[in-house]
Every structure is written in C-alpha cells, then in structure tokens.
Write a structure and sequence with these properties.
The protein is an alpha/beta fold. 45% of the residues lie in helices and 18% in strands. It has one domain (2-136): 2-enoyl-CoA Hydratase, Chain A, domain 1.
Length: 141
C-alpha cells in the first residue's frame, strides 16, 4: 500500500468534529499499523494536521526534499503561541518540521532531492524509483 501525504489539514471546526473526523483518523491509524502488507508513505509536500498524521504509519516513509510534517500548520501554531502568524517561519524552524530534520529524527527514512532548476519529469522519475526500491526491499506477507 502506498499512501501519499500532501495536505494542509482538515478544517478546525465544530462541523469537522461533529462529523466524526477524530474517530476516522484513529481508525485509519489503527488499520495502517495492523495492515499485513508492505506499506510506504510518500510525504510529497505539506503534511499538516490529523489527516497527514493518520496516513504516515508505514514500513518506510519517503519525503520530498521540500516536504514537511506538523500536527498544526506553522501559521496556526504561531497564532496560538505568539498571537500573530508573522512568526510562522521561525516556529517551523524551531519545531524541526522540514525534510532534513525529519530524516535526522528518524520520522522519515529517505529524502528525495528535487532538482533545481526543475527538469521536466526528473522529480517524478526519482520518486517512482524511490518508491519501487522501498517496496522491493520489504518482505512479502
């Protein structure tokens, strides 16, 4: 199973909670952890909120070079902590949410470089190769 994370997160609203979002996130986490098949998660871009965290459990986690992961968007965290969104970048650095930091802490297992300047198809090829390699090295049930 391949999960792809690239989400700003769900709305932080009463309606989302009344719709059972927390229960669905918990169910997703439990099912992914117990899945008897090889799993890879691709953190493709922004990974914010419970939805991103719910798709993260996998045997191997790959992250795009500019991907990041946080339970709350940096702007939201900045608004809560500092009462302004103007310190979001500072808070993101402090929380170590970027790909290199996630690799250093073991949250992700591999970071795929994004070419600069962009070359058409190059990044997609790198991602495809990384995903295939991760699945190839996992034992089959």
């Amino acid at each position: 199973l391949l999960t792809v994370v690239d989400t700003a997160g769900a709305a932080l609203s009463r309606e989302a909670e009344e719709g059972g979002l927390a229960g669905e996130i918990a169910r997703c986490l439990a099912e992914l952890v117990m899945l008897p098949a090889p799993t890879v998660c691709l953190l493709l871009g922004q990974g914010s909120g419970g939805g991103a965290l719910a798709l993260l459990p996998a045997d191997r986690v790959i992250c795009a070079q500019h991907g990041w992961l946080s339970p709350l968007p940096p702007e939201g965290a900045s608004a809560i902590v500092y009462r302004t969104t103007g310190r979001a970048a500072e808070l993101a650095r402090e929380q170590r949410i970027g790909a290199a930091d996630l690799l250093a802490t073991g949250t992700v297992h591999r970071v795929v470089a994004e070419p600069h300047p962009p070359v058409e198809g190059c990044f997609a090829h790198r991602l495809t190769a990384a995903i295939a390699e991760e699945f190839a090295h996992q034992p089959r049930p």
